[in-house]
């Protein structure tokens, strides 16, 4: 139990180790490249994320704890083209390099930034996490709940060990990455979900990021061989215009028409309580736009049963229903050896 004089910052400082994703600028200053901010941090200061910090010219990073650890359906991440119906062991830490007003994980992501946020860590080792994954026969371990890029050394510590047992790694991320961190992750992370939050750079800056960095990340992920799925939370009055949704879909299709695009429903949360919740018909129209712009797999999520056919996977060649879903449940999976059961077309993804 914490003593009265201990703060969350004190606890996190003690549960840190020297990081790998940085370079020295001089004896006192360092540049962190775990995320696209590339913070230049002076001795005694934190990065934007508040959990990576400089002590004596060395960068210290989170290690040895989780705030959340759960066995989730892989569809919840959401990955719809990765082992449908399987489960992933998901873990999260504290902190984020963005400050989205509608964050649904704000209690953990905004710790150390918002005095109302913060969850106490549970201390654990990489070996214990991998043992849990093995016990529950999880094929994937996913870094999620907070922004995984800023805790990448911890993730690699877990996933490197897990890879010895055939367990694969996944990231659920805002996509504010650098080439260095993606190269660092690539040996241990196969599956990468990116939140493409808006196609308006001004709006991105309000959230704490930059549009071009996220777009570059998506392109790099595909070039480096990650399996990529993209999510856009459709927020009324923020990013829900047909023109903006069409721009997003057009960009994704220009990178690869095989990237699944998930359009999901906003609900009032954290500091954003003015917009209306997203209506099912808005998600259906967004999904239609995705197909109109040349995407082969578009999904409308998190309102099960209200989004027509857009929870399912269809063959882009013959139109056959391949994977039928209701929410996170897989009702039918007719993909055989990675191919459409009806016409034999290869369906991009990981199915077996």
For the record, the count of structural domains works out to: 2
Strand order of the largest sheet: 8-9-11-12-13-14-15-16
Bin the helical content: 10-25%
**CATH architecture verdict of the largest domain:** Alpha-Beta Barrel
Strand content: 15-25%
Nearest-integer average pLDDT: 93
CATH topology of the largest domain: TIM Barrel
Shape: globular
By CATH, the superfamily of the largest domain comes out as Aldolase class I
The level 1 CATH classification of the largest domain is Alpha Beta
Assign the structural class, choosing from mainly alpha, mainly beta, alpha/beta, alpha+beta, or little secondary structure.
alpha/beta
Output the radius of gyration. Answer: 20 Å
How many DSSP-defined strands? 19
The parts where pLDDT drops under 50 for at least 5 residues are 1-5
The biggest beta sheet is recorded as: 8 strands, mixed
Helices, by number, come to: 9
Sequence of secondary-structure elements: HEEEEEEEEEHEHEHEHEHHEHEHEEEE
Distance between the termini: 45 Å
SSE order and pairing:
Elements: H1 8-14, E1 16-18, E2 22-24, E3 30-32, E4 40-41, E5 53-55, E6 58-62, E7 65-66, E8 68-73, E9 87-92, H2 106-109, E10 122-123, H3 126-135, E11 140-143, H4 152-163, E12 168-173, H5 179-185, E13 191-195, H6 201-207, H7 211-223, E14 227-234, H8 242-255, E15 261-265, H9 280-292, E16 298-301, E17 313-314, E18 321-326, E19 329-333
Parallel strand pairs: 9-11, 11-12, 12-13, 13-14, 14-15, 15-16
Antiparallel strand pairs: 1-6, 2-3, 3-4, 5-6, 7-10, 8-9, 17-18, 18-19
Helix pairs in contact: 3-4, 8-9
């Amino acid at each position: 139990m914490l003593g009265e004089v201990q703060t969350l910052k004190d606890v996190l400082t003690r549960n840190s180790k020297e990081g790998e994703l940085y370079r020295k600028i001089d004896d006192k200053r360092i540049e962190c490249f775990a995320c696209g901010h590339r913070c230049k941090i002076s001795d005694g200061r934190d990065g934007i994320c508040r959990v990576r910090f400089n002590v004596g010219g060395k960068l210290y990073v989170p290690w040895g704890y989780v705030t959340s650890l759960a066995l989730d359906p892989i569809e919840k991440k959401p990955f719809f083209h990765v082992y449908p119906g399987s489960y992933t062991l998901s873990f999260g830490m504290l902190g984020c390099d963005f400050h989205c007003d509608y964050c649904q994980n704000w209690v953990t992501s905004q710790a150390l930034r918002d005095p109302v946020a913060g969850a106490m860590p549970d201390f654990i080792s990489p070996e214990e996490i991998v043992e849990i994954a093995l016990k529950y026969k999880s094929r994937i371990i996913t870094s999620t709940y907070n922004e995984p890029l800023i805790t990448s050394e911890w993730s690699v510590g877990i996933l490197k060990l897990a890879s010895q047992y055939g367990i694969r790694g996944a990231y659920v991320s805002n996509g504010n990455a650098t080439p260095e961190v993606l190269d660092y992750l690539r040996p241990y992370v196969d599956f990468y979900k990116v939140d493409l939050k808006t196609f308006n750079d001004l709006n991105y800056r309000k959230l704490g990021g930059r549009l071009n960095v996220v777009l570059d990340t998506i392109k790099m992920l595909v070039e480096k061989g990650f399996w990529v799925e993209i999510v856009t939370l459709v927020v009324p009055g923020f990013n829900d215009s047909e023109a903006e949704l069409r721009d997003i879909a057009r960009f994704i299709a220009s990178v690869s028409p095989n990237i699944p695009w998930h359009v999901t429903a906003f609900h009032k949360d954290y500091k954003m309580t003015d917009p209306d919740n997203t209506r099912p018909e808005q998600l259906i129209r967004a999904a239609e736009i995705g197909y109109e712009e040349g995407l082969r797999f578009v999904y409308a999520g998190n309102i099960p049963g209200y989004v027509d056919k857009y929870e399912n996977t269809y063959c882009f060649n013959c139109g056959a229903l391949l994977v039928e879903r209701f929410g996170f449940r897989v009702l039918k999976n007719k993909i055989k050896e990675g191919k459409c059961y009806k016409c034999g077309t290869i369906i991009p993804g990981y199915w077996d």
